[in-house]
Amino acid sequence: MIRLEPLTGHHDRNGFDCGVDVLNVWLKQTALQHQGKGISRTFVAIPADAAAVQSWAQSGYPIKDNSILGFYALTPSFVLADDLPAKQAKRYPRQIPVIRLGRLAVRADMQGQGLGRLLLTDAITRTAAQAVGSAGLFVDAKNEAAARFYQHYGFTPAADQPLKLFLPLW
Length: 170
Known about the structure:
The protein has helices spanning 21-29, 31-36, 50-58, 86-89, 115-128, 144-152, and strands spanning 2-6, 41-47, 70-80, 95-106, 136-140, 156-158, 161-168. By secondary structure, the chain is an alpha+beta fold. α5 links the parallel β4 (95-106) and β5 (136-140).
């Protein structure tokens, strides 16, 4: 019932609300610009087809065929070994190429239904499939609740910076 695809101008960015203004504004004003400049790639979850739109409408969700249900953004980056958990840091040189999960958000009325897990799984899969070197997926969690979400899926926090988390892929 959900399709994941790269963000385009066709998607309804203005109709998205995850309850966090900074994420809403970034999607509406910055995501497509960054994508056009090659800074990051944003992937969106949208209804898979007209039947999915109709099903959600019958369940009380005001969703159209181009509604964004959730999104995440990936960007290539470097981190210092000091930013990794000690166990992983000792395996790498001073600077490590990673893919940074810059943003991840789900519509406020759809939170708690597993869509965040789906988005994270897709981000991990895309990171692992990269044709360029990357030690793993790195994320700066916005708060402790977000850090717990990532830890539940195998991310490890840096010892002295619990909101910086890393998922090694090798």
